């Protein structure tokens, strides 16, 4: 049954491949930009990373400066102030990204202590977050301490205390602890930590959500018109990549070529749906 169907479709198949070869040959620079920015970044099982992010398989014109993503050891990363932040998920409609500190991934005693520092030109802290302060190598017991843990490192055992509220006296200033690092966590994770139903590690690895400081209205209009959001690398302004060309705001649905494949090769789509049966 299936081979019969394929046989009867064979002439159609060759027409389709002929058509698609022609289409590929006629791809212009603008089509390439549209095609390139149509692809999301997919790294280590985290997919759907798109505008304003670029990098890996997305050209720099598919995103905005500062939003470069690298696929490092099979995880998508953003590098900010010399720290890698691991992307856990993105939400295009918010728009937001949930990240965790890579230096804290699977350890709460990284080799060097660095505070979380966000580039506020690109991101902002979303609501629903709590600052978790981690104190290292303290030699007195902090009364407000919630959870403590010991890390085994190359430099011996290190004790870590985590606190979700601010202390009246800074234990580092008083000399009771050697270091402190501030890491935002979801407030739900902070509450779970207070209730002793999660670990410092799991709270930190759960990451935190950052809002993206971008004009989402502009990008949504472009997408609704059938385009892909991007950057005009000449002017640094917004660019909406469409099937026929790049526009400054939205696609022109009535311009020649704007409908691309859909209008000129209806067979292609019909055949595709037959073959899926
Ligand atoms: C998009 O552009 C990037 C960078 O130039 C390139 O590595 C990638 O292969 C391109 N992808 C497609 C589908 O053309
Ligand atoms: C982040 O980028 C800076 C400069 O490009 C580089 O020196 C640093 O090693 C990067 N950090 C990580 C963790 O990859
Ligand atoms: C994405 O963000 C929107 C707006 O903040 C929210 O309503 C929605 O639930 C979020 N989606 C996911 C999957 O978290
Ligand atoms: C982190 O920031 C706090 C104040 O915001 C500061 O006291 C502390 O020394 C910083 N820690 C590191 C490791 O820079
Ligand atoms: C956490 O601390 C940073 C400064 O280190 C501050 O900008 C941010 O607003 C604080 N977040 C919360 C939820 O208190
Ligand atoms: C520990 O206690 C001693 C003596 O009270 C003090 O000199 C030192 O600064 C304290 N702090 C640390 C981090 O060792
Ligand atoms: C938290 O839970 C752990 C094990 O689940 C237990 O050993 C520890 O005593 C608890 N700590 C507090 C402060 O309740
Ligand atoms: C970039 O902007 C210039 C000036 O407005 C325009 O001529 C050019 O076509 C634009 N290119 C893209 C890719 O949007
Ligand atoms: C859209 O394209 C048509 C056909 O080329 C043209 O007449 C019209 O002016 C264009 N509209 C816009 C807003 O660019």
Low-confidence stretches: 1-25, 261-277
Fraction of residues in H or I helices = 25-40%
Order of helices and strands: HHEEEEEEEEEEEHHEHEEEHH
Structure class: alpha+beta
On the 0 to 100 scale, the average pLDDT is 84
Q: Report the β-strand fraction as a percent range.
A: 25-35%
Bound molecules: 2-acetamido-2-deoxy-beta-D-glucopyranose
Shape: elongated
Number of helical segments? 7
- As laid out across the biggest beta sheet, the strand order is 3-4-5-6-12-7
Q: Main beta sheet: strand number and arrangement?
A: 6 strands, antiparallel
Number of strands: 15
- State the distance separating the first and last CA atoms: 12 Å
Cα gyration radius (Å): 25 Å
Give me a quick take on this structure:
This protein is of the alpha+beta class and 277 residues long.
What does this structure look like?
With about 280 residues, this protein is an alpha+beta fold. The chain has a domain at about 1-40 and about 215-275. Helix content is about 25%, strand content about 30%. The protein has a six-stranded antiparallel beta sheet, with no helix packed on it. It has a four-stranded antiparallel beta sheet with strand order 9-10-8-11. A hairpin with a 2-residue loop joins strand 3 and strand 4 (about 75-80). Helix 1 (about 1-25) packs antiparallel against helix 7 (about 265-275). Bound molecules: 2-acetamido-2-deoxy-beta-D-glucopyranose (NAG) (9 copies). One 2-acetamido-2-deoxy-beta-D-glucopyranose binds near residues 125, 129 and 182. One 2-acetamido-2-deoxy-beta-D-glucopyranose binds next to strand 11.
């Amino acid at each position: 049954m299936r081979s019969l169907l394929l046989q009867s479709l064979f002439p159609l198949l060759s027409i389709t491949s002929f058509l698609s070869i022609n289409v590929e040959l006629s791809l212009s620079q603008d089509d390439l930009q549209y095609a390139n920015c149509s692809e999301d970044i997919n790294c280590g099982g985290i997919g759907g990373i798109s505008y304003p992010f670029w990098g890996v398989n997305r050209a720099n014109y598919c995103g905005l400066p500062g939003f470069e993503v690298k696929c490092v050891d099979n995880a998508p990363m953003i590098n900010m102030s010399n720290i890698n932040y691991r992307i856990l998920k993105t939400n295009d409609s918010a728009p937001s990204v949930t990240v965790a500190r890579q230096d804290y991934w699977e350890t709460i005693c990284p080799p060097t202590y660095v505070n979380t520092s966000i580039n506020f030109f690109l991101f902002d802290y979303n609501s629903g977050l709590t600052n978790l302060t981690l104190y290292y190598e303290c030699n007195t017991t902090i009364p407000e301490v919630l959870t403590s843990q010991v890390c085994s490192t190359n430099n011996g055992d290190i004790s870590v205390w985590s606190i979700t509220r601010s202390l009246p006296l800074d234990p580092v200033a008083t000399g009771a602890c050697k270091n402190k690092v501030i890491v935002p966590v979801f407030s739900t994770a902070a509450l779970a930590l207070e209730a002793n139903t999660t670990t410092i590690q799991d709270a930190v690895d759960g990451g935190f959500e950052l809002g993206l400081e971008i004009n989402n209205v502009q990008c949504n209009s472009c997408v609704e018109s059938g385009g892909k959001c991007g950057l005009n690398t000449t002017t640094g302004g917004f660019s909406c990549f469409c099937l026929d060309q790049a526009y400054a705001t939205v696609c022109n649905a009535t311009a020649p070529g704007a409908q691309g494949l859909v209008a000129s090769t209806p067979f292609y789509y019909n055949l595709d749906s037959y073959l899926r049966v």
